From TrEMBL:
GO terms for molecular function: aspartic-type endopeptidase activity. The chain crosses the membrane at residues 43-68, 80-100, 112-129. The keyword Transmembrane helix applies. Keywords: Membrane, Transmembrane, Transmembrane helix. This is Sigma-E processing peptidase SpoIIGA.
Amino acid sequence: MQDTVYLDVLILENFCMDLWLLWLEGKLLRKKSSMRRLLAGSAAGAFGAAAGILLPGMPKIILGALLPALMQQITYGRRISLFSGCLFLLFAACLAGGFVELAGRISGFHSFFLWFPAVLFLGGLVVLFEELKREERRLCQVRLVWQNQSICLTGLLDSGNSLYTPEDHRPVYIVEKRSLQCWKNRKAEKILWIPYRSIGRDAGALPAIVMDELWINEEICRKLPVIAFSGYPVSSSGQYQILIHSQEVSI
């Protein structure tokens, strides 16, 4: 019994798979390429796989090593090491192909129809991973100093925090009130009121005081920072307790 191979389906399936693998490689290795180069690299991989079917006598090394190297060179050039790029493509192709083959045997569907949901699912995981890493890079260690005592918090470099004092236009840092409970019995010389507007909440004013110092990652010191107190948690997950002003985002 002989299996029937539809060349157009084979090329399309390999093209979609190669396009996804090359995009995934760029995402994980943090390298960029144009859509034209991505499509060209994927097309090279697809037609190379078809040539392997049409020419059964073709040496295995061409499909196993030279074809990934060609795809790599077309898509990313010297942006990614040829060796590490080929290694990634081969490993990811084996891993993804194994999952799709297993799912096909269990479900009875042709592997072509399983690549699309597999791409969506794994691509979604990559985007989620990138977002988590991006937020992690925006986190910093903050130390507040006031009346000869200090407290350490986790801060978020927040490009959305653009509050300033209305009188002298000084940046305002927003801390959730409950994180400073150990200082609740202390008395400030002066209370400032910082007007704000936010989506989903009425406009209002946050109480604020001037502290002695604010340290970011023990490297950057802001003298006499204006610290506003929020009655709401600044992080729904509790990951951070203070919002750093947007002027610090570039640090």
